[in-house]
Amino acid sequence: xxxxxxxxWMNRLREPLHRLVRAMVYVERPLAKRFxxxxxxTVFARPGASQ
Length: 51
Known about the structure:
Layout: H1 3-12, H2 14-20, H3 31-44
């Protein structure tokens, strides 16, 4: 699944995911993709959660 598809899927299911998922592990080796994932992490973070 491509990252754009994952982002759309997560946005569609945001509320159920927040209720059911305690943490998400994301592993990506290339530096550019790690940088993008870190930038997107703020979009999916719970309010008040530390990163």
